[in-house]
Write a structure and sequence with these properties.
171 residues; protease
């Protein structure tokens, strides 16, 4: 569904555009990412609004995404599975209460996973050169460490879930 929509959009953009710098295939790939992200955000925020947790849902999406951009992580082969899983985490995490001490445990576990595995699965999904990977790891650590200032349960849960996606069994 998303692939075919992205393909149709890419073809129409290509026909309407005089610019030959971007191939239809590259445009389709970019549109799939944009559509997936937009669908997850829209559905998650809608459910967040309905459950009275729109701010928390938005913060979950934002914090998870920020860490994911710099740390990488597992990618589903199916766009539908990605949308469903991402949406479920975004709408469920704000409703899971954690004890104050659990904040520290989740943050420490997140840091451990980041130090061991970040960046993960970035090659082939990003144009970032390998020479910059150590900087991505440091930035990932800084992002998680920042929550020791705020001690936000939402951030702790989102960072922990994202950190789990870094584990690559093939290593």
């Amino acid at each position: 569904m998303i692939d075919s929509l992205a393909e149709k959009l890419a073809k129409n953009i290509k026909i309407a555009s005089k610019d030959d710098k971007v191939s239809e295939e590259v445009m389709k790939f970019a549109l799939i990412i944009i559509l997936n992200t937009s669908i997850v955000i829209f559905i998650s925020l809608l459910i967040g609004q309905l459950t009275g947790k729109i701010v928390e849902t938005g913060l979950t999406i934002l914090s998870f995404s920020l860490l994911r951009i710099v740390s990488g992580g597992f990618h589903f082969k199916s766009a539908k599975l990605c949308i469903v899983t991402s949406t479920l985490f975004a709408v469920i995490l704000p409703h899971i209460p954690i004890a104050p001490g659990m904040n520290y445990i989740l943050l420490i576990l997140s840091l451990l996973l980041i130090v061991l595995y970040a960046p993960s699965n970035i090659e082939g999904h990003s144009r970032i050169p390998k020479e910059k990977y150590s900087q991505l790891k440091i930035l990932s650590v800084i992002i998680v460490l920042s929550n020791f200032i705020f001690l936000s349960p939402i951030l702790s849960k989102a960072f922990f879930i994202q950190s789990i996606t870094l584990i690559n069994r093939g290593r």
